[in-house]
Specification:
single chain; 294 residues; mainly beta; 10-stranded antiparallel β-sheet; 4-stranded mixed β-sheet
């Protein structure tokens, strides 16, 4: 699935995302900002590259142009604040932030999992003139998933706590779009950057963050810088579109995994050394393309 928010591609749209997939346990986008959503499960527009299953094209509403307003929301699992209002006579904004305290709730009900997340979102729209609008958007999240001791220990809880890795993630997407109306059509420019950081840590016998007991470390990052231009024209009931796009992409990975512990005899003599695997990589490349559609 491919997601677009006001013309900007959003690779990560969920909290606690599995790297390489588009799913997750909790959405990041503030649904109160959404004005329109278009889902295409087949025959999607040619401008949306890398789509295999479907495209979600999300359009956000404008902020309040008359006065500053907002709201605060709180529940047993999270709290959020939203603000919107004018920025002079030709601009307006939307902004929201949310943070959870699921880890406190799960501690209270004696579960071994300790998830916590927070996110932010903003949109600023500026009318440069009667035909041209500049929009800036941003979206990001911080996720942490850990395990803790329970008051009533069980084999299942201890298995979770000792065998599964801690997960720390953060991601953001930020970008600008410039839309200009022309006779019987419009043109779009889009410039954006997104980054996803994923870290895994695991320690033998739940000796957390004691480096002598570390058996897994993984840090991977995905960074993409994107540009897209498209021209759209309506003539006698027909729509003509064409455009170009370019991307600079970089992926990095740094991993360490201890497969087996060292074995010593009763005298402390090493019989078999520990089996450890270390790996790191850095891949960067450019992508470019063009499209046309009638």
């Amino acid at each position: 699935n491919v997601y677009y928010l006001d013309g900007i591609e959003i690779p990560v749209l969920n909290h606690f995302q599995t790297q390489g997939s588009s799913g997750g346990a909790q959405g990041i986008v503030n649904v109160s900002f959404i004005e329109d959503l278009k889902l295409s499960s087949s025959a999607f527009d040619a401008r949306y590259d890398n789509a295999l299953a479907s495209t979600f094209v999300i359009k956000q509403r404008q902020g309040n142009t008359q006065k500053l307003s907002g709201n605060v929301r709180a529940s047993l699992t999270e709290s959020a604040v939203t603000l919107e209002g004018p920025l002079g006579k030709k601009a307006n904004f939307l902004a929201s932030s949310r943070f959870s305290y699921l880890d406190l709730l799960f501690t209270a009900i004696d579960l071994p999992i300790r998830p916590r997340y927070s996110d932010f979102q903003y949109k600023v729209s500026v009318d440069l003139n009667s035909k041209t609008q500049l929009t800036a958007i941003g979206l990001g999240a911080i996720d942490n998933f850990k395990f803790g001791e329970t008051r009533e220990s069980s084999a299942e809880n201890e298995y979770f706590r000792r065998s599964l890795p801690f997960i720390s993630q953060w991601n953001y997407t930020t970008g600008f779009t410039l839309k200009r109306l022309i006779e019987k059509g419009y043109i779009n420019f889009a410039l954006s950057r997104n980054m996803f950081n994923n870290e895994l840590d695991r320690f033998t016998d739940a000796q957390n963050y004691n480096e002598d007991y570390r058996n897994l470390r993984l840090q991977s990052q995905e960074m993409e810088n994107k540009f897209r231009f498209d021209y759209n024209k309506y003539v006698k009931g027909w729509k003509y579109s064409f455009g170009i796009s370019g991307q600079y992409v970089k992926y990095t990975t740094d991993s360490y995994n201890k497969l087996t512990e060292a074995v010593y005899d009763s005298n402390g003599v090493l019989i078999q050394p520990a089996v450890e695997v270390s790996f790191n990589s850095a891949i960067e490349f450019f992508k470019y393309g063009a499209f046309g559609q009638v």
